Every structure is written in C-alpha cells, then in structure tokens.
Amino acid sequence: xxxxxxxxxxxxxxxxxxxxxxxxxxxxxxFDGNEAFHNAVDNPYDCVILDIGMPGKTGLQVLEGMRQKxxxxxxxxxxxxxxxxxxxxxxxxxxxxYMVKPFAFSELLARVRAIIRRGHGxxxxxxxxxxxxxxxxxxxxxxxxxxxxxxxxEYALLEYLALRAGQVVSRTEIxxxxxxxxxxxxxxxxxxxxxxxxxxxxxxxxxKLLHTRRxxxxxxxxxx
Length: 224
Description:
This protein is about 40% helix and about 20% strand. It is an alpha/beta fold. The protein has two domains: about 1-120, Response regulator (Rossmann fold, 3-Layer(aba) Sandwich); about 125-220, Orthogonal Bundle (Arc Repressor Mutant, subunit A), CATH 1.10.10. It has a five-stranded parallel beta sheet, sandwiched between helices. Strands 6-7-8-9 form a four-stranded antiparallel beta sheet, covered by helices on one side. It has a two-stranded antiparallel ribbon with strand order 10-11. Helix 4 (about 85-95) links the parallel strand 4 and strand 5 (about 95-100). Helix 2 (about 35-40) runs parallel beside helix 3 and helix 6 packs across helix 8 (about 190-200). It is elongated.
C-alpha cells in the first residue's frame, strides 16, 4: 500500500514515514502543502496523512482541492488539540478520519489500516479469499491453516491483490500502489514478485488462487 505523508514538522514527518516503511508501506514524504496537493492529485494513494498547518497550501486547502479534482484517496488529517473547528471542516470536506497531536504511532497505524480496508470495502482486519487468510494487523498469512512466510514486498503485493480480490489488477496499478516515487526498481519486478508469490501460495494446493490475465494483469480469487 502506498501512502503520502504531508507534515511540516520534519522530525515528526520522518518518524511517521519511517515507522510506516518498517510496516511494509511505500511512503512519499513532503513538508509543503503545494507539493502535497500535486502529489495527491497525481497519484492514487491508498491513504493520505495530511497535517492541517503547512506552508503553501494548508491541509484543509489540499483536501478541498483533492476532492474538487476528483481524488478519492482516503485522508487522515492531523490537528492540534484545540482545533475543533478544523476537524469539523475537514470531515465536512471529505476527510475519512483525524488524529489529534501528539499521538501514539500504534494508533495512527491502526487507523491507517482501517481506512485502507474500508476504502476497498473490507471492514474486518482479516481478509479472507477462499482458504487464504491475510491478517492485516499481525501481517500473517495462512492457507488452509498452514502458515505462509512472505517477504515484506511479497506481503505488500498479496495484501493489495486481496483487497481487490475478484478483480483484474494491472501491472501499472500494482506499481502505483506498492512502490513509492523514489523507487528505482526495474520494470519487470512486478512479474518477478508475482512469480514468487504464486510459488508460495499456490504451489502446494490443488485450487489455484493467483491467476494471470494475459495482456491485462493479475487476479486473486477462485475463478479464472
């Protein structure tokens, strides 16, 4: 999953971004509202973490501009403890949730995961596809009760495909959602990691779940 962190306090912004990266998210980071706006309307982020008080455009202006431009990326905005009016306005402009600073990273992480699941119509923490169970909180995967060990990149790919279960997902969509703007990975890496993932979740099972649609992309599900 790919996240934009827009926060004008560098130490807090880097702390949040590093924590999210350690949890397997791809993260783009900015300290400026104008840059945040352009990033948010140009990229299909799975979540945008948006500080209210930024130079250039304020967080509220960024959010309003995003919605006017048709961006549907979920937004979690950050406010000061006494900024009740900002929180109300932000929610009215289309924010999905808010947090008051200072906050615990563990709560931020839980809220981000919940926002992403809701954005894909998956309210519960475990995502279930046939006998494949992905626990998005513990970041564990089992199939038919058997644990499956995945690398961070393999897990990120599987989680995104599982959130889109039953839909064909293009290579471009996968790239946009699991790699950040600074990633210099070679272009065929999506196919390579799909191969790794297929080997782990399908090889020992009669029913295959990861399917290739030639010329279109990939689909996770029981039907080809």
